[in-house]
Model the fold of this input.
Amino acid sequence: MNNSVPKSKSVNNFAPDPDALILVDEADRSLGFLSKKLCHEGQGVLHRAFSLLIFNESGELLIQQRAASKRLWPMYWSNSCCSHPYGDETMETATQRRLNEELGIHCPLHFLFKFQYQAQFDATGAENELCSVFVGRCREPVQANSDEIHDWRWIDPGALHREIAVDKGGTFTPWFKLEWARIWRDHRQEVLVI
Done:
């Protein structure tokens, strides 16, 4: 997979744009910054991201249906929350910021793994991310941001696994399907006892 930045895209070594994403290599070394829009054009440019899976006290996972206004995978069901750290933001700061912005909650998070993927949405847009996956348990009521989230629900992990297994129509985001398969295979017991 070619992760180099196309010559037509100008990379900065600083982040003048508050929405500039952190470009990385496959070892997660920072290579500079590029606007969020340009990072997702064409086949995408590899950038740092995170994915959060939040469970309640009953062990159910919070999943969300992405808002219709999203450029990529609108109205698809996905993990609890996902986004990107900006500028010099630490992963801890970024994950807590996004939990609050999207779901109106705060909770401790536990790192599980990183994975790299590229997923093409259409001819002009894609995800190309090195994604850190975190899990947490929350007792706070969810206050979903309607600008980001169309709908949300709590689901039992086993029921979710069955839904994804029969999801031939593609109602789940590609990154969520990839990370959930790995969680179910390699981290199931760890996740179920958070």
